Structures are given as structure tokens and as C-alpha cells.
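Researcher: Here's a chain I'd like modeled. Treat it as a single chain, no partners, no ligands.
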Amino acid sequence: MDIFDAVASRYSCRAFLPTPVPEAIVRDILARASRAPSAGNMQPWRIYAIAGARVEALKALLAPRMNELPKAEGGDYRIYPDPTEEPYRTRRFSVGEMLYQSIGVPRADKPARYRQYARNFQFFGAPVGLFFALDRSFGVAQWADIGGLLQTVMLLARGHRLHTCPQQAWVSWHRTMRTFLDLPDNLMIYSGLALGYADAAAPINSWRSPREPVDVFASFSGFER
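Model: Modeled as a single isolated chain. C-alpha cells:
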């Protein structure tokens, strides 16, 4: 798969097959992803990969606590600005509607929406969970670096015919995850990532979030035509 196909076919997969992913493949993806750029070559990331019994243990640990959602333990950082201004509010609202429409959950059915949200903490059935951590002292440049690493991991996963779902939702269990992963005090979870083989028949995987035309977000000057 070339890079153009990898970018075009990547999406946030929310239903996975239980097919195991070999450790060798996960190691290959992470080793290659380490070539992602970082300011001053700081490589400001720490990755925790879990599978098998560890994934099941984490799901079992959180299962009795789903009634605490959506707030759970709060978070080490705010994912969205408050308030969220336009056009960002509408984009976020619209993609949420597309997700729930794909599984027949109306806006008024908040319990069903929370149940779907809770599937984040089962990795949407994926056999592998990755957690991306960084030092609390790091600034915006290092946060950008870890975002670039995440994207690189997701595109390399497509090279292995795997799919992914980045999950910042995991920050809402930051205290539990600190204990579960035995995080040093200086590290914080930036994002989780579900990794596995997509369930192509699942309705929730049937839609794609829209993107704005390039002229909406980019300007061009000085080019020869």
C-alpha cells in the first residue's frame, strides 16, 4: 500500500475483529514510526502497548465504573476548547450525528449514546491497545511531535492492513491508567489508540467524516501556473 492509499483509507475504526495482532507487527510499526519528526530530535514520547490478558484486565477493571461516564476522573488536559467557536462547533456536532445515525441511535437517547461512548474503554473490540505518554513539563512543540507520531503509527498500520482509532477519551481515566501502567509521576497520558483488523460489516464503520475543500483552510501565492 502506498502512502496515498494509506492516507485515503485511514479512518477512526470503531468496530474490530478479535483476530490477534502479532507482537512482531506492533514492534515493526512502532520502530518505523520513531522516524516521525520531533523538534531538536527530542523524541518526546513513551508508548505502552498491551494485548491479550492485559487488555482483558483493563476492560474488567473499568467495566463496573461505566456509570461514572462521561466525566469519570476528569482529565489531565482539556480536549476541546470551552466554549467551542464556529466553524469548529458545527464540525464536531455534525460528525457526532453521523456516528450515532450509523447505528440508529437518536439524539434524545442519551443512555444509548453513553453505552456507545463506553465502548472506547473496550478498545471497540480491538485486540491491541497503545497508550502514548509524554512528560508533564513539555510544551506545545512536544505535543505537536506526539501528534505526528500518532499519525505515523496510524498510516504504518494501514501498511499492515490494520486499522486504528485514536482515543483521547482515555484521559478521563488518567488516575486509573497511571496505576495500571505504573506511570512515573512525570508522565501523563496524551492518547490511547485501538489497533486491529476492522470489522468491515459493522454499520459504525460504514461512514466517513467529511473534510473541507483545500481552499477553505489554505491560501496559495507566488506559484507559477
